[in-house]
Specification:
This protein has 52 residues and is mainly alpha-helical. The radius of gyration is 22 Å and the shape is rod-shaped.
Length: 52
């Protein structure tokens, strides 16, 4: 295996790792966003019950 092909392989591996990281970051952001929405809904529900 010559150097050019090896570096190409390393680049591909690095890219796959990065893509995986991006996917998990996206997942976490989605979870955080959902959690934020739930928290806002919950606080508005609490508000309604407290002032009802």
């Amino acid at each position: 295996m010559d150097y050019g092909r090896r570096s190409m392989f390393a680049l591909l591996l690095a890219r796959r790792k990065l893509l995986g990281m991006h996917a998990s970051i996206g997942l976490w952001q989605g979870k955080l966003r959902d959690g934020y929405k739930l928290a806002r809904i919950w606080s508005s529900i609490k508000h309604t019950f407290v002032f009802a």
